[in-house]
Known about the structure:
Distance between the termini: 76 Å
Number of strands: 5
Subunit structure: Component of a multi-subunit COQ enzyme complex, composed of at least COQ3, COQ4, COQ5, COQ6, COQ7 and COQ9.
Mean pLDDT: 72
Order of helices and strands: HEEEEEHHHHHH
Shape: elongated
GO molecular function, one term: 3-demethoxyubiquinone 3-hydroxylase (NADH) activity
Family: Belongs to the COQ7 family.
InterPro entries: Ferritin-like_SF (IPR009078), Ubq_synth_Coq7 (IPR011566)
GO cellular component, one term: extrinsic component of mitochondrial inner membrane
Amino acid sequence: MSKANTERRPQSSPRRQEPFPLSQFFAIPPFWYNGIEKGLQHVPGDFKDGVAFCTPAEWPPSLFAGLPALPPMWPVYDLRTPVCCRRVRPYSRGRHNCFFNAAAAAASVSDIRPARRKWRQAEAQALRVNQTGELAATLIYTAQTPLVVRQHPHLRPLMQHMYDQEAGHLATFNKLMAKHRVRPTALYPLWSVLASGLGWSTALMGREAAMACTEAVETEIGTHYNGQIRELLAMTSAWEEEGYDVGPELSELIQTLRRIRDEELEHLDHAVENDAKKAEPHWLLTGAIRLGCRGAIWVSERV
């Protein structure tokens, strides 16, 4: 062996450090720096050139090469909110649809977490109570329709139209809850029994009482949707003032709530047109139903 081969490397020559193995990287996705994949054990609190938070669907395919199956829930973040950190140049968002853009990335991750936590809580409450309300509406119409249509056959198309819309609303919120991993209310069986009983009892009282029930329920539901939309718009404005860029997911949710609210108010108009005000006693019947709806909304947001 030659002497040149046996000489040791000078101490001044730094050795290349191997990147953190991705197979051991589960807590937070890799941090991309200048196109070079380097896994980190933690996300630093201060980024110099900005960070874009991207959705899991936008991760590059090479990220998962040779990587074992990831657990469904990561210790730090879950898949309901953007979790992938990518290094970008200043003042450039790139081609990704980001929830928080690079212009706001000078703030540390600890500054972003409260906004995410607030959004996650508001999202879970909204989807849970909305699904409960749409379930109750479909059960009310299911119980009312046979009795009402038997005495008033001309109302069959209207009852079918309102039921179909409520069933579509319920399917929409079921998909959103599955997508965002929001659990349904624990009182699901109780609300099902009460909604069916309300629809059946008001239908026995006659067409006017059944329409008064629709009037009361849709009034409270429309008011509730308006409150949700105002709250989401206020959160959006506050985040934009702080420098965050709200992605399309929140905007699509607001548009969905607006569409469903308008259809619910359409049901209210149909009920009034079909003599809901003639139910006796109208004030007592609608007042009791509206009070029950408010209580169900309050409980479903928390349980």
